[in-house]
Design goal:
Length: 548
């Protein structure tokens, strides 16, 4: 069944395939209200091979129709999407609040970030230098062989599949950073909506469809497919006309998509951001100077958003003389042990939080049980999971030696919890940090009395393991801009050289193409002699906007 959409006032439960709303015939499923577990209408249906084929075929045609459009046209499309989303603010916040349990204030802030991402990429596309145009002009007199005319720039890959994330239904959702950056690059997008908030996804899809129509873009530039199972994700990833995948979610799901894409006859990149424990190191000087401020900031960072941020500090390393219940370093004051007790009291005061859904609550409780089952782990604050998806925060502590020999303690607990790791001294701290795997962030708190060489050594230990190094702050709160990196070495992501946030995210969905001795009239405008776009280019090693 096909039809139109009424801008989010009443959901259809359908797929949006190249601007047409289709009610599927696959397995039915519904989203639920996070706070109560009540089933929400309408009923959605799993997409199958037929819907995937229609969406990808439409995207392939749209790519050929749009890949050479002037940059200003893509910028206009992005700005139109932002405006269309903003017109649906009330409907989006109401539906997302029900499906995710997130508070209205958080959702308003996140929606502002979502809209801002489209404006940010519109500005990048208008300015144009992001295509990295490089020109080496010919020199026929060069010996022993003439030098050819060579020109290079970035070009879009083609149809991209984006997986809607559960923990950020707006900023990483149907119209999140992956979608915005792929569209900015010139790639059509097919989104697989998340089963926890399919209604939110449908409203976003209606916003994009209207914007494409209003700006004269082919409807195949964007499609939304609904699904609660894993089959549709595999179908999309393995489709021969899909050129790349963007994903935010668990390590297991991200790695599964990566393996599927790698096993294709023609492998494609999967840009999967798969979570992180985000190690945070507190040196003794920092505790001496600002213990209370650190306790307050750390508590907020651990529990904000129900601890369901991929940048939550899940592992906190500190130096304390209470290791092994004996004094092992007389130069260390008792600030470490008093810090632990004060932090535990502050975290225990945080009220229960509604998690995104009952499934996340169940997995969170299971993970805490696994950690607590290790005999040497001391539970300072025990979480209480109750109701449909509510949970209070948790804080546990363990000696560094125990942490090093128990890999299960290195893994993420997705929810409002953190594990403190006590180190005897600086040497053990550095030794322990060697066991930290790839992460999105690493944080270091220092004070004036901390040895500069120690500070440098800890920073040097963290930097190769993270995508973003934070000093005297907290990793939660990702600034969307030009310098940000939201990525990191595996297992934080499958592509350490990329970011899923900020303007550099566009680089995931392009590839460099070189043009040798191509006639000027056949070159893309960014590489033509006259530089009709007026962009910054590197010509014979010099950065310039002048023509040739």
């Amino acid at each position: 069944m096909t039809g139109t959409h009424n801008n989010g006032a009443e959901l259809t439960g359908g797929h949006s395939i190249a601007g047409e709303w289709r009610i599927g015939r696959g397995k039915p499923f519904c989203s639920v209200e996070a706070k109560t577990g009540t089933t929400l209408s309408p009923t959605f249906h799993e997409a199958g091979a037929a819907e995937v084929e229609m969406a990808v075929a439409a995207a392939k045609v749209a790519f050929q129709q749009t890949r050479s459009l002037p940059p200003v046209r893509r910028a206009e499309m992005l700005e139109a999407i932002a405006a269309s989303i903003e017109r649906r603010t009330d409907a989006l916040i109401a539906r997302a609040a029900a499906e995710s349990g997130l508070p209205e204030a958080r959702l308003k802030s996140e929606l502002g970030r979502t809209i801002g991402q489209f404006h940010l990429f519109a500005g990048v596309v208008r300015e144009g230098a992001w295509v990295d145009a490089v020109i080496d002009t010919a020199d026929e007199a060069r010996l022993p062989l003439p030098k050819p005319d060579l020109r290079r720039m970035l070009r879009p890959l083609g149809p991209v599949v984006v997986f809607d994330a559960s923990n950020f239904p707006f900023a990483y959702g149907v119209c999140g950073g992956d979608t915005a950056s792929a569209l900015a690059a010139g790639c059509p997008v097919i989104v697989k909506s998340h089963p926890a908030h399919p209604g939110t996804g449908e409203i976003f899809a209606a916003a994009v469809a209207d914007a494409l129509e209003n700006t004269g873009f082919p409807a195949g530039v964007f499609s939304l497919l609904q699904g609660a199972g894993i089959e549709i994700g595999a179908l999309l990833t393995q489709h021969p006309d899909v050129e790349a995948v963007g994903f935010t979610g668990s390590l297991g799901a991200g790695r599964a998509l990566f393996d599927l894409a790698s096993a294709r006859t023609r492998p494609i990149p999967v840009y999967a951001e798969m979570g992180s424990v985000n190690p945070l190191v507190i040196l003794p000087g920092a505790l001496e100077e600002r213990r209370e401020a650190i306790i307050e900031g750390l508590t907020l960072s651990i529990t904000a958003g129900g601890g369901q941020f991929c940048t939550k500090p899940g592992l906190v390393f500190y130096i304390g003389k209470d290791v092994g219940n004996s004094v092992t370093n007389n130069s260390v004051s008792d600030s470490g042990s008093s810090f632990v007790e004060a932090l535990a009291a502050r975290i225990a005061s945080v009220p229960a939080i509604t998690l995104l859904n009952a499934g996340i609550q169940k997995r969170f409780a299971q993970r805490l049980t696994e950690i607590a089952a290790i005999e040497e782990v001391d539970t300072k604050v025990a979480a209480t999971c109750r109701g449909n998806a509510d949970s209070s925060p948790s804080l546990m502590i363990v000696d560094a030696a125990v942490w090093r020999r128990n890999p299960t303690l290195h893994e993420e607990a997705f929810g409002p919890a953190a594990l403190l790791i006590r180190c005897r001294d600086t040497a053990e701290l550095l030794n322990t940090l060697e066991y930290v795997s790839g992460q999105l962030t690493g944080t270091l708190h220092t004070g004036a009395n901390d040895d500069p060489e120690t500070v440098r050594a800890v920073a040097d230990m963290l930097e190769p393991r993270v995508g973003r190094l934070v000093f005297n702050g907290y990793p939660t709160g990702v600034e969307v801009g030009r310098a940000i990196i939201h990525g990191g070495p595996y297992p934080a992501t499958t592509a350490a050289g990329t970011t899923s946030v900020g303007t550099a995210a566009i680089l995931r969905f392009v590839r460099p193409v070189a043009y040798q001795n191509v006639p000027d009239t056949l070159l893309p405008p960014a590489l033509q002699n006259a530089n009709p776009l007026g962009i910054r280019r590197t010509v014979d090693g010099q950065l310039t906007t002048a023509g040739i």
